[in-house]
Amino acid sequence: MSAGLVNHTWHEASLAMKFVDQEVLVLGRPCTDNLNQIIEVLQCSMRPFYHFVFREVELKRNMPIWDQYGPCMKSLVLLCCDLSEKALIEIFKCCTSLKVLHINDCRECLMSGRLLEDESDIKELSETFKNLQELSLGYNRFLSDALFNRLVAICPNVESLSLMGCQISFHCGLYKKFYPQNITLPDASQSVLTFLNALHYLRQQAYKLKRLNFGYTLIDGTALTTLAALEDLKLESLMLQGCYQLTVQGIKGLTQHQTCLKILDLSYCVRITDASLLHICKNLTKLETLRIKRCRAVTDCGVKYIRLLKNLKELDISENELLTGDCITLGICSDPNINDSNVEQDIDSENFNFGPTDQHSVMKKTIQKKTVQILSANALNLHEESIECISKCFPNLRLLELNYCFSGVTNKTIQMIFKELVHLQTLKISHCDKVSDAGLIGMDAGNHEHFEPIQVVHEPEFTESNRLRISLRSRAEEEIVRDANRKREVMKICENVVKPVDFNTFSGFSLIRLKCLRELDLSGCNRITDLSLKHAFAFLELKILNLSQCQQITDVGLDYLSKNNPAIEDLNLNQCHNISDIGISYLAQRLHRLKRLIIQGCSQLTDHTLDAIKLYCKSLHYLDTRYCRGMSVAGLESLTHLYVDWIKHIDDIVSSEHGVPPPPAPPLPSLPSLP
User: Fold this and answer.
1) What is the pTM of this model?
2) Which of 156, 162, 344, 373 is most buried as measured by Cβ atoms within 10 A of its Cβ?
3) Other Cβ atoms within 10 Å of 559 Cβ, number
4) Cα separations (Å) of 118 from 88, 125, 307, 375?
5) Cβ neighbours of residue 2 under 8 Å, at least 6 residues apart?
6) Mean of all residue pLDDT scores within the chain
């Protein structure tokens, strides 16, 4: 889209189908008040739009958008929208080419239970939606068996179904209460949504279904086993995040029947144990994506079995409090140390102890570490050796998340990442406060050829020269002084040795080696200063940069940042108290693609910042200026008056993956109660 603004030739090239088919048009808050004006603009547009998202808006059939774009519309996503049953049906009839339909958290059209009561509408829409492949009915609290049956009846060829966050009843007693004679479609209940009714549909559609989402429901082990055992059902993707009723037996039944699974999401399933992982890794040999985020009962021993997944491309083991660095060094990244016979014995006995005598045994099927492209290991108790193992064992990583790994991510290990993982496109090391300029620039202790290692030691309070002086500094103040001394030493080295964007004189490895970097999160790394922005930031493709709470950054650093990183579109400077209006003016004038700017809590900013934004930021879509005490109400009002179409508030953010914010994670049961 940016390239299409260069000239007429580039604009024509940008309208190629391969590009246009990836664009999504989002209509909703906070531009609801101007929705009519936006629709008028769309009416005059000559370019095609195939994918639409409507969020928190009132939809009516007489909106001209349906007649103009409905026949060619490929995907329609309705999030928290207000529309009647009649309007929804009429809109459906206009969309004759839909492949994706999401109706998430839309209460008004489902509350009465009268949607699609006319059988003629069902018959007509079933022909209209014959190409529909993906249906999502997530977070609809008024969805009943009757409504579910009608909605799936108009989608005869669905391959992907989502009931995420729906209030599904899995209790057989409740089903018998509403269905004493096991009556199904003609007399389906309009009061409750039951699993057995959904199971009846899944059994009929099994030969077509490839992807299911039961996330944040009360599905238990028995229901999961029954679902997995359906004849002709061969799932490729199953999302079960937040299903805290799942047990080992349910996972065992799943892995025995659904051996073709490629994507399995068990995030926030607090009853998933090492035994569950053993069944998954032994039976699901085709698995490419495994997410076990905050599965708090998983230990280092269970994670070791992940080596069995030879086709794994994405792994998320974040926020598991029982995991340590050994799950990396002695587990995922270690040499094969268990064989197939040991695995069979572990399945039978559920014995997960790895003794020292197992170190030299051989395993035939192990994880192909070169295939892994995404690794998330946030908030784990990792050590430096584990980070080095990750760097050496996964050379083709494209995304690496190590947020809140306080002990493992240091200046030494971050340089190992820069050395080995040169294909990284996303790197997140938020709140790893041991990382400093020396690590990012590439001259940490022992890595510089011409100077002694940088060591800033604490000077004793009582010496011959200052015997009568008593330091009144607190521990925090002493740390500030040491940081200042360290910064002074690094600056001296940079000025004497380093040429701009040239680090050949250092034996260490700089951040600048990551030429493909597109997203970088350094929030909370408070030891980073302007030196890093000057000597380690020069990326042609960097789009998203988070420097939140990096409080030592000043206008000087922003000057170099804006000169050497022209593609930045999303910049977070939250609580960077040392930046002023001058620094923001550098950004506004040079970052022509800037779409999202967060300057919350920057106390030195005044109305001059707003003037620079109004004058230069023509592409800005999002601005957060909360707690900027130096800005006046008049200045903010003038900004919203000029840019009412794009000024947004922080509360308007919605998860792009699920469409609506997921509910909070379920409460964690005590460990002794886990099976």
Assistant:
1) 0.85
2) 162
3) 19
4) 13, 11, 54, 50
5) 593
6) 84
